[in-house]
Amino acid sequence: MSTEATGSLRAGEVTVGIPYQSDAGLIFIGRIHTPWAQSRDCPRQGDRVHGPICRIEVNERWRAALQGLEAHSHAQILYWMHLARRDLVLQSPRSNGEVTGTFAIRSPNRPNPVSSSLVAIVEVGADHVLVRGLDCIDGTPLIDIKPERCPEAPRPKGD
C-alpha cells in the first residue's frame, strides 16, 4: 500500500496497485460464499433478516477498505454472475411461453450479468463480511460493497 501524497490524494488516503484489468475493466475484489451450489437453488431475493449467513471474503489487496463498514447495518453488494448466459435479449422466465425483454426482468441472464443485493451486515472482520440477504451461488466474484442506511432495521445477530 502506498500512503504518498501524489496527484489528487488527500491527507490520509491510501492507494494500492491495480491488478490486470479484464475486458470490461472490472476488478473483482473478492468472492462470495453462500450455501447454494446452483442458480436454481438460490432464493429469488434474499431474506435480510432470517436468511442464512453468507460470507464475503475480500482479497488481501482490498482489506483495508473494510475499515468503518462495521458502523453500518446494511450494505449494497455488487457481484458478477459469472455462470449466467449473456446472449438472451428476450426471455420466458416462467417457462409459460410469455416472452419479456431482458431489461424488463430481474433475470441473472443479461449481457453484463452485474447484480446487486441489499444485505444486512452481521459481522465485519479483518478479511471478510458476514451478511444475510444474498441470493447468488457459492464462489460468485465480488465487484463492490457500498454501505446503505436502513435506520428502521436493526442489525441481525449471528447464529
Q: Care to describe what's here?
A:
The chain is mainly β. The protein has one domain: YaeB-like (Elongation Factor Tu (Ef-tu), domain 3), CATH 2.40.30.70. It is 0% helix and 29% strand. It contains no helices and 8 strands. Strands 1-2-7-6-3-8 form a 6-stranded antiparallel beta barrel. Strands 4-5 form a two-stranded antiparallel ribbon. It is globular. The mean pLDDT is 84.
Give the key terms.
globular, mainly beta, two-stranded antiparallel sheet, six-stranded antiparallel beta barrel, Elongation Factor Tu (Ef-tu), domain 3
In short:
The protein is built from no helices and eight strands.
The biggest beta sheet is recorded as: 6 strands, antiparallel, barrel
Give the structural class: mainly beta
SSE series: EEEEEEEE
- The CATH topology is what? Elongation Factor Tu (Ef-tu), domain 3
Q: Output the CATH class name.
A: Mainly Beta
Average pLDDT score:
84
Helix/strand layout:
Elements: E1 30-33, E2 53-58, E3 74-80, E4 90-91, E5 100-101, E6 114-124, E7 128-132, E8 140-148
Antiparallel strand pairs: 1-2, 1-8, 2-7, 3-6, 3-8, 4-5, 6-7
